[in-house]
Specification:
The complex is a heterodimer of chains A (about 140) and B (about 1200).
Chain A (H helix, E strand, L loop, with lengths): L4 H31 L5 H28 L3 H19 L12 H4 L2 H35 L1
Chain B lengths: L15 H7 L30 H16 L4 H6 L2 H12 L3 H13 L1 H6 L6 H6 L2 H19 L3 H8 L8 H7 L5 H12 L2 E3 L8 H15 L10 H6 L8 H12 L12 H14 L5 H19 L6 H11 L11 H16 L17 H6 L1 H10 L15 E2 L18 H6 L11 E2 L7 H23 L9 E3 L21 H6 L6 E3 L4 E2 L2 H7 L4 E4 L10 E3 L18 E4 L2 E3 L6 E3 L2 H4 E2 L4 E2 L6 H4 L2 E5 L13 E7 L2 H6 L1 H12 L10 E7 L3 E5 L8 E5 L15 E2 L4 H14 L10 H12 L4 E7 L34 H11 L2 E9 L5 H4 L1 H4 L5 E5 L7 H16 L3 E10 L3 E7 L3 E4 L2 E7 L5 E7 L8 E12 L4 E13 L2 H6 L3 H18 L2 H22 L9 E3 L5 H9 L12 H13 L2 H8 L2 E4 L9 E3 L2 E3 L4 E2 L11 E5 L3 E6 L5 H8 L20 H14 L7 E6 L5 H5 ...
Parallel strand pairs in B: 6-29, 8-14, 15-16, 15-20, 20-21, 21-22, 36-37
Antiparallel strand pairs in B: 1-8, 2-3, 4-30, 5-7, 7-27, 9-10, 10-11, 12-13, 14-29, 16-17, 16-19, 17-18, 23-26, 23-28, 24-27, 25-26, 28-29, 31-34, 31-35, 32-33, 35-36
The chains are: A mainly alpha (about 140), B alpha+beta (about 1200).
Chain lengths: ~140, ~1200
């Protein structure tokens, strides 16, 4: 039993993953509020925007840590989402100051349902990875 | 919209129809959130009032009348009728004039009387003894109401006009409340919805009747007989107790006779009015009751109307009556309010003033629908009345517009039709039932008349054949490659939904509301199979000639989905109605039980809301987030060197000076001006200054308002200063050397200025913004203009304008952009300021006030329309549809605030919208679907109003039926909107492919459903036969064409227009109309305002139709071309153009001279007729065959081959090839 760098990575990512889960839930609630008319997209998109960049940063941090810790399997699991985030980040309207969610466009039913689905998928992914990290953390702590 | 959004816009497939279909899955992932339940309705108003406050008022006010009126209703019921009458008269009617009421009212009430068991002839018999009859009527109604209703005392009054004809609004409007009766009647206005009916201005029968009521005081001995009855009573010229003969005459008059039968009577003017009234309202059997009622109710409207009328009687009367306008204390605002709109409308329409040509209405639901009595009467007249035949009555109407039978039978869904026949018997003998129609009414009427006729024919055919063996016309297979003349000779009419006649009659006008598929497929799978786009095309704020305006305490709406009650709901019984959108069963509020039009109680299904699919409600304060804003106009003007050089300021200031008084608004109207070059100039126009003060802010990085209070000033208080400024402005900057333009900072300042109130900002810009925030660089590469591959920069270069627009939208400010530019100005970026703030965009390429006179003239005309047209502020529009359908994309200028709510800072009558729909749940358990748009806005007079349109369409389960119901024009407009989105989000070539694929997919899908066809031919159903032609036209449209040199701004402007033009105008833009005008004849001509307008047949857009001997007119929506052939008849050139021969026609000619020849008159009246009602007043170009300008003309001949694009036949072959692949 040893406290390796990998174990540290897993512990840290465990904590941060909780934050990501929180972000995802926030997104889900935000889009749901939009769908049910509780809020104006302009009001709603601003806080959502504020969360997008931190989320991307945290997730990139995971990938870098796992790369350093040489946890290839975990890295492999995270890379697709990383690429998705990159793609999304660089595929933004005009100034890219708006990041993913454009108030005039977000209410388009297609866009909105897409955003909702994305948020649910991310929530599922983060939840699964949370337990996976937990397992891996214990595994690395115990095995070495 | 960012990258992943690509998947909603499946660029990959580049096909529009599949995409449409694919939306069904959306929302599947909807979480377990609050769900769809809490639909907040347009704004703040959610609570349905359980008890209308009006009722609360009643008891108090009722006191007054009850003083005069000692018998309680209960007591009356126990009395025998005759004695009761006696009581009535002795007790109540002390003033002689009041007694005059009786005969008239006797006629008014036959329905009510009948309802309680009188035989059909009763009115006649009793009519001869008016007194007793009246008593009978009133007492019967007493009986009824007191028996059944807790509210009976009040209700009684209103429902029996004989006693207290509830001419509430007359009373409240016309006369100061001087006595007890008065107080009561004004309250009744408050309590019961008063329906004013701003209908046909000219022949409005109500208008006439109103005079009579206004005349009353002069006639009646006692002026204080403000007793509401007087209005009807006095119009009856007979002295008190009218002799039986007289009574008879009156009935005659009612039943269709006009003036003659009245000749015995006393008062010429009143009589005149009344008779006109009768002729006008002949339409409905119930005409009298409804007439008088609505007359009284619509009184205020008519007051405004009158000045427009030509009748001298009218105007004098008006003069007399208008002095007494002060509204009654109880209800000061509302009745007056309902007035305003019609008058505006009328002014805009400039309607024909002859009063006798009245009541045939362009819309199928006209008065009679509003009056609420017509169709059941017809029913009863044919079913139960002893002498139903309308023949005996002389029919003054020149031509009956609608065939009688069409007025029969009730729309299904009314739960208790059994009540009606008995109810209506009495009126049957009176009725002639045919709405008199005037052939010479307004421009569109003749069409409207032909049109229902045709529709009825085709639809009844369709209705038969859809179920049975012969195929409907719309399904007739057409071999496109064989058919040489695919374009019909007459304009293409929208298909009529295959509904039963009543629903058809009630349905919304296709001008306001159209669906691409008039037969809605039952499932998404079926829709996918048909490969057609499903969506709605809306023109919600269109100028209407008639619109029922309803003032009511309770606006009846579904409690769960907040749908407004509409003609397509079903009444389960008298007390409950079932929502047609969500199927919830709702209670009918007490107030709704009373019908202000027929003044009867217990007929909720006859309320105007249920009889008209387009209505307008005056909303209560529940529908306000804040007090209604005043009209606020801010003009932001570019005064850089470029702008001064172009010289638009002169035209603008001139137009403003001319139209300053016509700007829509009330006494609170505010106006302000800003100019900008590299600095921003504000103008202090505060009242009291001797001359306008110019304040210059040069800090454009951090703009501030120098004096926030005095920049937007009251138009009326500071009018002189404003005029001074407008006179001085064109010359103030003549020597400027400033070339920069700080548009962004100016807009920021404008936003700051407007944000406390909201309103309209009109921005005039002449070049690329070059300073401060929002500066733009030139992005156009002139060498790429005719590129066939990639067209770049269709999207905005910066988010600045979009963000600004969103901020503005949040503060209820709309930004309208006038771009008058000679070079590239990046409209793609600038347009964002209008797109998201619900503004509008005008573009005048290469504008110069002297070098380009046609553009200058166009600007002038556009400004006139722009400044004077109606405007609605702080508007929201919600679109609802039957459960199972959902909207997923909106097109137009607005900000989407929620899945079905559009936020519109301003709404103008020229704005169109499109909505894409998807079918989320199968519609198997319903045979009808409905769509409802509700536009809540603040009128320029500071009222909150809700305009509601409801459209009803059938659901079908077979693919053939879906094809039978395609509205090809609506489909093409929706496709154009989708293609604009696609070209911005993806690329132009993608959009073009998608358009071609739309044709290929739908035609091949049709081909596969029809098995017995030879597959070598290109077969389309008749309903879709124009589809390929229109798509080809779209591909050659400026917005989507490639290979032809097109300036980027022109292209972007065309796209903006596609997005925000209503369908009628957009179709002209896509597919112009070509007419040959050198041989106009009166054959098939229509009459508009005393002018004969020839109707030449449409020619197809091909050079093969152009002969050198002819002259042709092409109507492209915003521009007209007259092409003169080389060997055109010299007579024509001389008679119409005013030149001796072809050679002497000048190159630039933009007007037809007013020559006194027949052919000139015909040509001019035809062009004027085409010009009417265009938002963008078209300019006329006379193009000679050999002039260089002819390329402009020839590029619109879309059926011909160009160097870069297919001819129509080649396009068909191309499609065929694609299908066979």
């Amino acid at each position: 039993m040893a406290f390796t760098f990998a174990a540290f990575c897993y512990m840290l990512s465990l904590v941060l993953c909780a934050a990501l889960i929180f972000f995802a839930i926030w997104h889900i609630i935000a889009f749901d509020e939009l769908r049910t008319d509780f809020k104006s997209p302009i009001d709603q998109c601003n806080p959502v925007h504020a969360l997008v960049l931190p989320e991307y940063c945290i997730h990139s941090l995971f990938c870098i840590m796992f790369l350093c810790a040489q946890e290839w399997l975990t890295l492999g699991l995270n890379v697709p989402l990383l690429f998705y985030h990159f793609w999304r980040y660089f595929h933004c309207p005009a100034d890219s100051s708006e990041l993913a969610y454009d108030p005039p466009a977000v209410m388009n039913a297609d866009t909105l349902s897409y955003c909702q689905k994305e948020a649910w998928c991310k929530l599922a992914f983060y939840l699964l990875s949370f337990f996976y990290y937990l397992y891996c953390m214990i595994y690395t702590l115990v095995s070495s | 919209m960012s990258a992943p959004a690509e998947s909603p816009h499946p660029a990959a497939s580049a096909r529009i129809p599949p995409k449409l279909g694919g939306a069904s899955a959306s929302g599947a992932a909807a979480p377990a959130g609050p769900g769809p339940a809490p639909h907040q309705q347009n704004g703040p108003a959610q609570n349905q009032m359980q008890i209308p406050s009006g009722y609360g008022l009643h008891p108090q006010n009722y006191i007054a009348p009850s003083g005069h009126y000692p018998q309680g209703p209960g007591k009356m019921t126990s009395l025998p009728l005759d004695s009761q009458c006696g009581d009535y008269y002795s007790g109540l009617y002390t003033v002689p004039t009041q007694n005059m009421v009786t005969p008239n009212t006797a006629n008014q009430q036959p329905g009510a009387q009948q309802m309680y068991g009188r035989g059909p002839p009763a009115p006649h018999i009793v009519g001869s003894t008016p007194g007793s009859f009246q008593g009978a009527t009133s007492s019967t109604s007493h009986l009824h109401t007191s028996a059944s209703q807790p509210y009976s005392p009040f209700v009684n009054h209103y429902s029996s006009p004989a006693m207290y004809p509830a001419n509430s609004s007359v009373a409240s409007q016309g006369f100061p409340s001087t006595c007890g009766h008065y107080a009561m009647s004004t309250v009744s206005n408050a309590a019961y919805p008063s329906v004013s009916y701003p209908s046909l201005p000219a022949g409005d029968p109500y208008g006439q009747q109103m005079f009579t009521s206004q005349n009353a005081p002069t006639v009646g001995p006692v002026r204080e007989d403000s007793f509401p009855g007087h209005s009807t009573a006095i119009s009856h010229p007979a002295p008190l107790p009218p002799p039986p003969s007289h009574q008879y005459h009156q009935q005659q008059g009612l039943s269709g006779c006009n003036t003659l039968s009245w000749s015995a009577s006393g008062l010429p003017s009143a009589q005149d009015n009344l008779t006109r009234n009768h002729t006008g309202s002949l339409a409905t059997p119930n005409s009298n009751p409804t007439n008088t009622v609505s007359d009284s109710l619509s009184c205020p409207v008519m007051q405004n109307v009158q000045p427009l009328k030509s009748s001298p009687v009218v105007s004098t009367v008006l003069g007399a009556s208008s002095t007494r306008v002060p509204p009654a204390a109880n209800r000061p605002v509302e009745p007056v309010a309902s007035v305003t709109q019609p008058s505006e409308l009328l002014q805009q329409k400039g309607v024909d003033s002859s009063s006798t040509t009245s009541s045939a209405s362009p819309m199928p639901n006209s008065y009679d629908a509003l009056e609420g009595g017509s169709y059941p009467d017809m029913l009863s007249s044919s079913a139960s009345s002893p002498a139903p035949d309308p023949a005996p009555e002389p029919d003054p109407a020149p031509a009956p517009s609608a065939p009688q039978p069409s007025k029969m039978a009730k729309p299904f869904g009314y739960g208790y039709p059994t009540l009606q026949p008995g109810y209506q018997n009495a009126t049957a003998p009176l009725n002639s039932g045919v709405p008199p129609s005037s052939p010479v009414y307004s421009g569109f009427q003749p069409y409207a008349q032909q049109y229902p006729g045709m529709n009825q024919l085709s639809s009844s055919l369709g209705g038969l054949s859809l179920q049975s063996s012969p195929q409907p016309e719309s399904l007739r297979p057409v071999n496109l490659t064989q058919e040489r003349n695919i374009l019909p000779m007459t304009p293409v009419w929208p298909p009529v939904p295959n509904l039963n006649l009543d629903l058809k009659k009630l349905n919304c006008s296709p001008d306001s509301f159209r669906c691409t598929l008039t037969n809605i497929p039952q499932t998404q799978a079926l829709l996918n199979k048909a490969k057609l786009p499903l969506g709605l095309l809306l023109h919600p704020f269109r100028d209407l000639t008639q619109l029922p305006v309803i003032t009511s305490n309770t606006i009846v709406r579904c409690r769960s989905c907040r749908t407004y009650i509409n003609p397509f709901v079903s009444f389960i019984d008298q007390r409950r109605w079932k929502c047609n959108l969500c199927y919830r069963v709702n209670d009918v509020p007490e107030e709704f039980m009373y019908n202000p039009v027929t003044r009867s109680y217990g007929e909720p299904h006859k309320r105007p809301e249920v009889q008209n699919s387009t209505v307008e409600f005056i909303a209560s304060s529940d529908y306000m987030l804040r007090p209604p804003q005043p009209a606020v106009y801010l003009f932001v003007l570019d005064v850089s060197h470029n702008a001064v050089e172009a010289g638009y300021l002169t035209i603008l200031c001139q137009s403003l000076l001319e139209n300053l008084d016509k700007l829509p608004g009330d006494s609170r109207t505010r106006i302000g001006f800003m100019t900008f070059d590299s600095t921003i100039h504000f103008y202090n126009l505060q009242e009291g200054l001797s001359q306008p003060q110019m304040l210059i802010v040069s800090d454009i990085d951090d703009v501030f308002l120098p004096t926030p209070d005095s920049l937007l000033v009251n138009l009326y208080e500071s009018k002189e200063l404003i005029k001074d400024l407008l006179t001085a402005l064109p010359n103030m900057f003549t020597n400027t050397r400033e070339t920069h333009s700080a548009l962004g900072p100016a807009l920021q300042a404008a936003f700051k200025l407007m944000s406390p109130t909201g309103g309209r900002v009109s921005v005039f810009q002449t070049q690329l913004p070059s300073l401060g925030a929002g500066l733009l660089q030139s992005r156009e590469d002139p060498n790429q203009r005719s590129s066939t591959k990639v067209v770049q920069h269709l999207g905005p270069a910066t988010d600045f304008y979009k963000k600004l627009a969103l901020d503005c939208s949040g503060q209820q400010t709309a930004v309208d952009l006038f771009l008058l530019s000679s070079q590239y100005s990046d409209l793609a970026s600038l347009a964002c300021m209008s797109k998201y703030s619900a503004g509008c965009i005008y573009y005048y390429p290469s504008f110069h006030f002297t070098h380009n006179p046609s553009q200058a003239e166009k600007l002038q005309k556009d400004l006139k329309r722009y400044l004077t047209r109606k405007i609605g502020f702080e508007a929201v529009m919600r679109i609802r549809c039957t459960k199972g359908l959902s909207m997923h994309t909106f097109h137009g200028n607005f900000f989407v605030r929620s899945t079905d709510l559009l936020s519109l800072a301003n709404i103008n009558p020229d704005a169109g919208f499109a909505v894409q729909l998807s079918i989320e749940e199968n519609l198997t358990d319903t045979s009808l679907v409905c769509f409802q748009t509700a536009l809540l806005y603040t009128s320029s007079k500071g009222e909150r109003r809700i305009r509601v349109h409801t459209l009803c369409l059938p659901v079908v389960s077979s693919l053939a039926d879906v094809y039978a119901g395609v509205d090809v024009q609506a489909a093409i407009c929706l496709l154009a909107n989708m293609a604009v989105d696609r070209s911005i989000s993806s690329s132009l070539s993608d959009a073009r492919d998608a358009l071609v694929n739309a044709v290929v997919d739908s035609l091949s899908a049709y081909g596969s459903t029809v098995s017995n066809l030879q597959h070598s031919a290109l077969i389309a159903p008749s309903s879709l036969k124009l589809f390929p032609l229109y798509v080809l036209a779209l591909l050659k449209q400026k917005a989507f064409r490639t290979g032809t040199s097109t300036r980027l701004d022109d292209r972007v402007y065309a796209m903006c227009q596609i997005k925000c033009q209503p369908l009628v105008h957009l179709m002209k833009m896509i597919h112009p109309n070509l007419y040959r005008i050198d041989r106009l004849t009166d054959e098939g001509a229509i009459h508009v305002n005393d002018r004969v307008v020839p109707q030449p047949p449409l020619q197809k857009l091909s050079a093969e139709k152009l002969t050198r001997e002819g002259a042709f007119l092409m109507d492209c929506g915003s521009v007209f071309y007259i092409w003169i052939g080389k060997s055109c008849d010299n007579n024509f050139i001389e008679d119409v153009l005013g030149y001796p021969n072809f050679a002497s026609i000048p190159q630039k000619m933009t007007h037809l001279p007013e020559l006194d020849t027949l052919s000139s008159e015909r040509a001019r009246s035809f062009i004027t007729w085409l010009r009417d009602n265009r938002p963008l007043s078209p300019i006329l170009h006379v193009v000679k065959d050999e002039s260089p300008a002819k390329t402009e003309f020839f590029q619109h001949l879309i059926e011909d081959r160009t160097e870069a694009a297919f001819s129509y036949y080649e396009f068909l072959l191309h499609i065929q090839q694609q299908i066979c692949k």
